[in-house]
Amino acid sequence: MDGRMVPYDEANVHVLTHSLHYGLAVFEGIRCYRCGDGRSAIFRVREHVRRLYDSAHIMEMPIPFAQEELVKVCAEVVRINHLDECYVRPIAFYGEGEMGLSARGNKVRVAVACWPWGAYLGDESQKRGVRLKTSSFVRFHHNSLMPSAKTSGHYINSILAGYEARRNGYDEALLLDVGGYVAEGSGENIFVVRDGVVLTPPLCSVLPGITRDAAIRILRDEHIPVVEQLFARDSVYVADEAFMTGTAAEVTPVRELDDRQIGSGSPGPITRRLQELFSAAVRGQNPRYSGWLYYL
Ligand code: PPE
Which helix (H) or strand (E) holds 123? Predict the structure, then answer.
């Protein structure tokens, strides 16, 4: 925290922490995996740290550390906690001092935490697939808030959508953009497959997911065409397969949207192949993707 290791019980902030009041903080979610050879590696940590700095730049927040320093800190936090598999959470936020929307002088504080985190959408989600519901909450327009920044306040939109979906018995929400096109899940990017072609919404109303990027790369390496284009909810209804990607969710098959079964109703061949290849990549079992791993 702010450049030094702090025990859990002392990693506290004041109630007048500016970001707590106004939601202006930027953060990341990164996974560390135990690899086949027993070592642990953080998946694409440099890309995550770069996105953190991109988010901060978009939000005009100067982070008082170098990117490479923060990369090393992520690894150090995992090491010091003796975790071989975990989730890593860097966050940059405005500390206490002045209040009010116009305050600009507050110190930018930076913390990195980690904890063990299992399957994001439930234990069976990766095997069976999840059930989605189109949300009544719309993904915010990029002239209101900027979805490419991973900003704390943005997640209010996701949280409300997630509450609604789960309260009604679904596993996750699917948010549409202001134009009514499919955008993303509350914490995942989405893909559909039809006739061997994979579609995913373009980067505009969605977070530029690092797992999304990994999935595109892996699929193209398998000579499976991936097209970034807008599509509406009915393209999901009639898809042969659908899946979501995210650091927390990894590659999670989607088996239903709005009570319509997708394809056979169980994870399809392209989804299962991607799951296998992704799982091998993050665990250092495919040399092609070794550049994605930062060994502890
Ligand atoms: N869209 C959103 C809105 C999102 O929050 C995430 C990550 C993604 C797409 C996928 O991005 P990436 O992780 O870079 O592939 N969501 C985080 C949510 C975790 C949480 O609940 O907190 C994550 O997966 O870490």
Answer: none
DSSP state of 67: H
Alpha-carbon gap, residue 205 to 142, rounded angstroms: 6
d(CA 101, CA 109): 18
The total of other beta-carbon atoms located within 10 Å of residue 17's CB is: 18
Instruction: For residue 97, report the distance from its CA to the centre of ligand 1, in Å.
Output: 30
Instruction: Give the per-residue pLDDT at 218.
Output: 98
- Per residue, the 3-state secondary structure of 69-112, as one string, reads HHHHHHHHHHHHCCCCCEEEEEEEEECCCCCCCCCCCCCEEEEE
* pLDDT over 90 at 123, yes or no: no
Q: What share of the chain is helix, strand, coil (3-state, %, to 5)?
A: 30, 25, 45
Element (H, E) at 75: helix 67-80
Our answer on whether the CB atom of 248 is closer than 6 Å to any ligand 1 atom is yes
| Token duo for residue 167 | 């309260």
Per-residue exposure over 249-270, b if at least 16 CB sit within 10 Å of its own CB, e if not: bbbbbbbbbeeeebbeeebbeb
Q: Is 127 a catalytic residue?
A: no
Ligand 1 atom at minimal distance to the Cα of residue 147: 3
Average pLDDT over residues 255-284: 98
